[in-house]
């Protein structure tokens, strides 16, 4: 999440509130919404009160220009292409000037992406850095940053995984460069994160 973000934040499809809990701990004025009453019940049972049951599309439509940031982790892939287009438009309209849309989605370019793309029968859409930029531009976002999701070092084993991934992913990027002639910008992790910023 870009820092600092001054203003309200909403996590779309918040589930049990994993990301929301982190946002609140970091001092953000954050809330979450999810269409699943079971997920909201679990979030509340875990001590979260800043959650609501409902359709995120309704709240985005009702609050134009309201949010400093909108997040969505593992949500967009469950939507059809038409729904993805509509969601980008609704998010852009609900953001305040210079607001940001931060989301994680499956990466269709990843050589290992099938594990996530097809691992859930409810997945409808997959994305690439290029398609994310196309969607953002069509919805009027001013700039987009697309990032990889490599293993995070938090212990000896995970550090080993992170180092190994750097070596393996370099080979994947080299193969893509050889085939496409494009030397830079290849993201090969199973997921990618993007930050789309609304213009002033």
Summarize the structure.
This protein is of the alpha/beta class and 200 residues long. Helices cover 38% and strands 24% of the residues.
Architecture overview:
The structure is a single chain. This protein is an alpha/beta fold and 200 residues long. It has a domain at 55-150 and 189-198: Vaccinia Virus protein VP39 (Rossmann fold), CATH 3.40.50.150. Helices cover 38% and strands 24% of the residues. The protein is built from seven helices and seven strands, in the order βαβαβαβαβααβαβ. It has helices at 18-25, 37-45, 56-62, 81-94, 114-117, 129-138, 156-180, and strands at 8-12, 29-34, 51-53, 67-73, 95-106, 141-148, 191-198. A seven-stranded mixed β-sheet has the order 3-2-1-4-5-7-6, sandwiched between helices. The longest helix is centred in the last third of the chain and has 25 residues, at 156-180. The protein is globular, with a radius of gyration of 17 Å. 34% of the residues are buried. The model has no long low-confidence stretch (mean pLDDT 92).
The largest sheet has its strands arranged as 3-2-1-4-5-7-6
Low-pLDDT stretches are none
Proportion of residues in β-strands:
15-25%
Quick one: biggest sheet?
7 strands, mixed
Average the pLDDT over all residues and give the rounded result: 92
Number of DSSP-assigned strands:
7
CATH architectural name of one domain: 3-Layer(aba) Sandwich
User: What percentage of residues falls in helices of 4 or more residues?
Assistant: 25-40%
Output the CATH class name of one domain: Alpha Beta
In sequence order, what are the helices and strands, one letter per element? EHEHEHEHEHHEHE
Number of helices: 7
Radius of gyration: 17 Å
Computed structural class? alpha/beta
CATH fold-level assignment of one domain? Rossmann fold
C-alpha termini separation: 19 Å
In CATH terms, the superfamily of one domain is Vaccinia Virus protein VP39
Q: Which overall shape is indicated by the principal axes computed on the Cα atoms?
A: globular
């Amino acid at each position: 999440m870009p820092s600092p973000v001054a203003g309200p934040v909403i996590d779309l499809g918040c589930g049990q509130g994993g990301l929301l809990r982190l946002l609140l701990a970091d001092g953000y004025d954050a809330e979450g919404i999810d269409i699943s009453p079971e997920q909201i019940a679990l979030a509340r049972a875990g001590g979260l009160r800043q959650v609501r049951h409902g359709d995120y599309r309704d709240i985005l439509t009702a609050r134009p220009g309201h949010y400093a940031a909108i997040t969505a982790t593992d949500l967009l892939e469950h939507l059809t292409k038409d729904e993805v287009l509509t969601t980008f438009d609704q998010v852009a309209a609900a953001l305040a000037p210079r607001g940001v849309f931060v989301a994680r989605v499956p990466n269709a370019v990843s050589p290992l992406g099938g594990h996530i793309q097809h691992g859930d029968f409810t997945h409808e859409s997959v994305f690439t850095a290029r398609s994310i930029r196309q969607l953002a531009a069509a919805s009027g976002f001013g700039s987009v940053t697309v990032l990889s999701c490599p293993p995070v070092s938090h212990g000896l084993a995970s550090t080993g995984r992170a180092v190994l991934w750097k070596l393996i992913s370099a080979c994947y990027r080299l193969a893509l460069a050889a085939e496409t002639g494009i030397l830079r910008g290849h993201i090969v992790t199973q997921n990618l994160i993007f930050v789309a910023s609304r213009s002033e």
